């Protein structure tokens, strides 16, 4: 009987949807690097990570050293990007601020990914009462904006990067869970999954062999998008005073501290604003490039020039079901 189950499972695997091209012979990184979006994303993200690592061993100046004598200095060999109104080196603060960006991105990715899967799997495959309860809970949590949730947490526990990571992880993790849940339900209705279930494979085996591998492209793309949103959220929260503590340089805090001088010294706002914009754009384009790398059919359509511009990078949920819409309740 076990041999029969293995044979049916293998046949079902052969019928698995080919939404993932991780098996592409060129490899995922080479596929990513083959297009302009992937090249830009990998270059910018790699540069930010390199600056973060470099900041732990070398900085052009002390990012927190203030000197009224050095206020508003123009770019020079000593101060590459000039200084701000307190005489602090802008280049040093920009490089040191990459630590906060990388920390928030990694922390938010781990938290949002874990929360997304914890919501999605039982909400898609659990009993009916659990699916309906989680669907309602997801809708309630999505109704709270991430910034509002962060402010509420900061009011209770105090500000800091941990609050930023928690708020961003919860806010965007629920959104990831909603998208992955819809994708899981659609995949669970495929013939090869039903055949595996009829062969006697348990839910755990089906989840490991069929569902999670096929939902990986959607999950990965949504996770990369949440990283870009995490940078924006951190910058916004630091701007409002709920993010990085005062002694820790942050791109959002740099914007907040120099906003009063934008009319007379616009360059001090330009650099952190440009860093945020380019990095967020890199993660957005990474999501688009990842989806193309994981979807051979999309890559073929774009190579053939069909359809004009690129498709939106957000995942499209599967067909609505009574559990999704609540129409049949």
Automatic annotation (TrEMBL):
The keyword Membrane applies. It is a multi-pass membrane protein. CDD domains: TM_PBP2. The chain crosses the membrane at residues 39-59, 100-121, 133-155, 161-180, 268-287. One of its GO terms (biological process) is transmembrane transport. Its main location: membrane. One of its GO terms (cellular component) is plasma membrane. Residues 1-21, 301-329 are annotated as: Disordered. Residues 98-287 form the ABC transmembrane type-1 domain. It holds the Pfam family BPD_transp_1. It is found in: Cell membrane. Belongs to the binding-protein-dependent transport system permease family. This is ABC transmembrane type-1 domain-containing protein.
């Amino acid at each position: 009987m076990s041999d029969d189950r293995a044979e049916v499972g293998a046949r079902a695997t052969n019928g698995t949807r080919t939404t993932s091209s991780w098996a592409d012979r060129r490899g995922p990184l080479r596929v990513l690097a083959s297009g302009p979006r992937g090249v830009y994303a990998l270059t910018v993200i790699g540069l930010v990570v390199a600056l973060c690592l470099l900041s732990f061993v070398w900085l052009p100046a002390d990012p927190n050293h203030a000197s009224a004598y050095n206020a508003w200095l123009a770019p020079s060999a000593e101060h590459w990007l000039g200084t701000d109104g307190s005489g602090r080196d802008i280049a040093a603060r920009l490089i040191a601020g990459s630590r906060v960006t990388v920390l928030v991105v990694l922390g938010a990715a781990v938290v949002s990914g874990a929360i997304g899967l914890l919501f999605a799997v039982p909400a898609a495959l659990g009993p009916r009462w659990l699916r309906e309860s989680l669907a309602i809970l997801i809708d309630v949590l999505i109704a709270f904006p991430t910034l509002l949730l962060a402010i509420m947490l900061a009011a209770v526990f105090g500000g800091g990067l941990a609050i930023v990571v928690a708020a961003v992880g919860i806010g965007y993790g629920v959104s990831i869970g909603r998208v992955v849940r819809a994708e899981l339900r659609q995949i669970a209705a495929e013939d090869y999954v039903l055949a595996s279930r009829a062969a006697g494979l348990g839910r755990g085996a089906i989840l490991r062999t069929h569902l999670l591998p096929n939902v990986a492209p959607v999950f990965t793309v949504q996770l990369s998008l949440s990283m870009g949103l995490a940078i924006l959220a951190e910058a916004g929260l630091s701007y409002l005073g709920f993010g990085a503590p005062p002694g820790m340089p942050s791109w959002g805090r740099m914007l907040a501290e120099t906003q009063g001088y934008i009319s007379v010294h616009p360059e001090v706002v330009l650099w952190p604003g440009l860093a945020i914009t380019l990095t967020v754009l890199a993660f957005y384009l990474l999501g688009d490039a990842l989806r193309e790398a994981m979807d051979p059919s999309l890559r073929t359509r774009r190579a053939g020039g069909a359809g004009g511009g690129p498709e939106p990078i957000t995942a499209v949920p599967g067909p609505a079901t009574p559990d999704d819409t609540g129409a049949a309740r």
